[in-house]
């Protein structure tokens, strides 16, 4: 049996390492010609030569799902179980990107949580291009850091269900992992210092002037500033509209649905609270400007800061909650006082509201109306409950409603 | 709207409502939602024809009530 696991191999996660690849894919690999011709009798050394010849990554492709050579080599590594040092050499080598990805993939399958983060995260700084074979047999272009990101954040890659690993921040809070050092760290610190000096001047300038000033700022510094102001601001980043909607609902429930510090939807949600003084209002305008312009760019970059941001968010959560409670009380007071505060509040919002200077109530109404309209469109109000159910499912998958 | 029946002959048989201008890829997503198997692990075929993801049911001449074979990969 050529497809036996090396008898000296240790079992991984309580089972034969080859079982990490699902049965169907495994049997596809065993039937594959590349496996039979090229992978027969490979050892840890000769496997390196084969790995150097790789020119794409990928899982399985084509109508009958042939495995890629990459997949075959992963399988071979699971079979012969090379020593950890060898795998780490694979990852550390700079000359062969596919060898690196192969090593990273293998480590992700078999390594411990801390090892995975420790050895894979440095590869976030590898921006070389990688060819990836898609399921339909076409190639697409990706990069080493994207593949690594997929390995670290997703649970499925190259037609293999990756073993679960703990989230980075849990490991950090246990103390088994240091906070991640970004390669950009030093740049930021420099900028921060510089900005501290400049901020003194900032205070003196008036609003209008300042707006222009901020528009012209470099995104790096903008974001940097942002980070520091995060204590009274949440930002959710999500692309999935369903998820977005869910978060919106959650937020509405959390802050009691009527808000003077407003929730704002779109690609990014900004929730602001506790705006008593002018100063903060102004701050918010600044964010808005930034959010509008830099959102896409920001998101990519945010990946770098994710761990850190999350940590901060967690820390803030407690503080936040009490904050919002006190805010609702103060809001009542405000309402009693009369429209005075509100008027001021509204007037300070100006720059982003191109579409509507209307206040929150009309906006909410519009939103509701829109929802109703949507409902009619996606056919979930169909009299036949079965079809309505099917349409709901289709809507969640992003498909058109059934034609009846 | 048409209904197709997908049978894997291992104990799973699903009826799926769909439009005839849905693609096979859409159909796989619907089946995935009903059965809990990943859409990209599903293969739909009829005898030896493996259906391709980007082609619509209409083009494969799949009509109401037709049965398809469900395989996994």
Automatic annotation (TrEMBL), chain A:
Tell me the keywords, alphabetical order. mRNA processing, mRNA splicing, Nucleus, Spliceosome
Q: What Pfam families does its record include?
A: PRP38 (PF03371)
Describe the task this protein carries out. Required for pre-mRNA splicing.
Q: Where is there biased composition of kind Basic residues?
A: 318-331
Segments for region (Disordered): 182-226, 261-283, 297-404
Which PANTHER family does the entry link to? PRE-MRNA-SPLICING FACTOR 38A-RELATED
Recorded protein name is: Pre-mRNA-splicing factor 38
GO annotation, biological process: mRNA splicing, via spliceosome
Family of this protein: Belongs to the PRP38 family.
Q: Name one GO cellular component term.
A: spliceosomal complex
Cell compartment(s), UniProt: Nucleus
Locate the compositionally biased regions of type Acidic residues: 185-205
Compositionally skewed regions (Basic and acidic residues) per UniProt: 206-226, 272-283, 297-317, 352-392
Determine if Ribosomal protein is one of this entry's keywords. no
Entry superkingdom:
Eukaryota
Q: What is its main location?
A: nucleus
TrEMBL record, chain B:
InterPro entries referenced in this protein's UniProt entry, alphabetically: Hub1/Ubl5, Ubiquitin-like_dom, Ubiquitin-like_domsf
- Per the record, GO CC terms? cytoplasm; nucleus
- GO biological process terms, semicolon-separated: mRNA splicing, via spliceosome
Keywords in UniProt for this one? Ubl conjugation pathway
Q: Any keyword rRNA processing?
A: no
A matching Pfam family: ubiquitin
Where does the record place the Ubiquitin-like domain? 2-73
Q: Which PROSITE patterns match?
A: UBIQUITIN_2
Q: Where does the source fall among the domains of life?
A: Eukaryota
Instruction: Give one GO molecular function term.
Output: protein tag activity
| Name by which UniProt lists this protein | Ubiquitin-like domain-containing protein
Organism whose genome encodes this protein = Erythranthe guttata (Yellow monkey flower)
């Amino acid at each position: 049996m050529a497809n036996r696991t090396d008898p000296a191999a240790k079992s991984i996660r309580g089972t034969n390492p080859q079982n990490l690849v699902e049965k169907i894919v495994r049997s596809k690999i065993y039937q594959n010609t590349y496996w039979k011709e090229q992978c027969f009798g490979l050892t840890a050394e000769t496997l390196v030569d084969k790995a150097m010849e790789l020119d794409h990554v990928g899982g399985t492709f084509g109508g009958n799902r042939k495995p890629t050579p990459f997949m075959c080599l992963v399988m071979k590594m699971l079979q012969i179980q090379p020593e950890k040092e060898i795998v780490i050499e694979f990852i550390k080598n700079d000359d062969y990107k596919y060898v690196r990805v192969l090593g990273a993939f293998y480590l992700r399958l078999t390594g411990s949580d801390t090892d995975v983060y420790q050895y894979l995260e440095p590869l976030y700084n590898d921006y070389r291009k990688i060819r990836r074979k898609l399921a339909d047999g076409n190639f697409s272009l990706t990069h080493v850091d994207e593949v690594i990101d997929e390995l670290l954040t997703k649970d499925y890659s190259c037609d293999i269900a990756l073993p679960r690993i703990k989230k980075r921040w849990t490991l950090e809070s246990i103390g088994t992992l240091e906070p991640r050092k970004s390669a950009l760290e030093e740049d930021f610190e420099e900028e921060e210092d510089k900005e501290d000096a400049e901020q003194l001047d900032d205070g003196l300038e008036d609003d209008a002037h300042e707006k222009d000033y901020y528009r012209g700022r470099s995104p790096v510094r903008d974001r940097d500033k942002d980070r520091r102001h995060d204590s009274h601001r949440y930002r959710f980043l999500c692309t999935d509209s369903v998820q977005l909607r869910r978060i919106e609902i959650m937020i509405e429930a959390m802050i009691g649905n009527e808000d003077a510090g407003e929730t704002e939807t779109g690609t990014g949600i900004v929730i602001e609270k506790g705006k008593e003084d002018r100063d903060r209002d102004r701050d918010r305008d600044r964010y808005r400007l930034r959010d509008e312009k830099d959102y896409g760019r920001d998101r990519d970059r945010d990946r770098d800061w994710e761990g850190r941001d999350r940590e901060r968010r967690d820390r803030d959560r407690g503080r936040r909650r009490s904050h919002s409670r006190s805010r609702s009380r103060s809001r009542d007071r405000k309402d009693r006082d009369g429209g005075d505060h509100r008027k001021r509040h509204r007037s300070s919002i100006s720059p982003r509201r191109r579409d509507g200077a209307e206040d929150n109530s009309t906006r909410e109404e519009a939103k509701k109306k829109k929802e109703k309209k949507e409902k009619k469109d996606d056919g979930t109000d169909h009299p036949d409950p079965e079809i309505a159910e099917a349409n709901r499912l289709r809507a969640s998958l992003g498909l058109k409603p059934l034609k009846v | 709207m048409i209904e197709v029946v997908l049978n894997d002959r291992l104990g799973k048989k699903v009826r799926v409502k769909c439009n005839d201008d849905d693609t096979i890829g859409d159909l796989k997503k619907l089946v995935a939602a009903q059965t809990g198997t990943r859409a990209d692990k599903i293969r739909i075929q009829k005898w030896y024809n493996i259906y391709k993801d980007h082609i619509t049911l209409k083009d494969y001449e799949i009509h109401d009530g037709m049965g398809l074979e469900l395989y996994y990969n």
